[in-house]
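Now read this:
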Amino acid sequence: MMFNRYRRGLFIASFLAAPVILYVVYVIAPYLQAFYISLTDWRGVTATPNFIGLENFERLFGDSAFWLAVTHNGALLVLLPLFTIVIALFFAFLLNVGGAQGTTGIRGSKFYRVVFFFPQVLAVAVVAVLFQQVFRPDGSGMLNGPLMALGFDAIGFLSDRDVAFWSVLGVMVWQAVGFYVVLFSAGLASIPRDMFEAAQIDGASRISLFFRITLPLLWDTVQVAWVYLGILALDVFAIVWVMTLQQGGPDRATTVMAAEIYRSAFGHFRFGYASALGVVMFFFTVGFAILSLRLSRRERIEY
């Protein structure tokens, strides 16, 4: 018996060895290397970086650009999951339970799922370039063109400090909603229709169906969606760097931590300082995930 158990453990270990080694080499090792580089003044050109301790972190916490980036990431951390989940839940509920009978989806729901999911097929850089054209401040812009034709002034979606951040947020929500519509639709499909039919017979409205049946039974999926979207909000880079003026402008009105990391490393060749930014961002991300999972934990509902 012991020999068979040993052979089984050896068999499992042989399959796990390769992915574990790859994970250690390409994920864990770079993290550890970044922690070390954050304690140096390495500029990417010297073979032996000079150890300076916590100086990068002291400079970091006194940097106004860093705090501005943290503020923007913090706003995205709240607004991106909130808007995306609310919109995705609405459309998923409509597609699956919003039909004439109140327990089936609307006609053509499969086609609409494909339409909603389409932005996920596009690369982030493609989406950024696409919305650069949508937000053009002249008559050829998809949004400003009709406004100017009606006699209104053009809106500086990417050039106005008060509007640029909301433009970035809108693009991120637009791209993310489709995936979560499909995710929530899959969760709704697993809920027995008998529950909706029984509640409807008892006189429950569609609003009651959503808050008393749909949302409680989808809570685990919503929790996962919130964590993923929060990590996306902290890790956002390509949309900001490609779409906005001055890669995070105007005047850093849309800058985020990932953009400051790239700017410090490849713009100013301060790899030690950039690694310190990355370390702080790492702890922000891990802390957010742990806090979100703990605060949103609730007793699982069986059905």
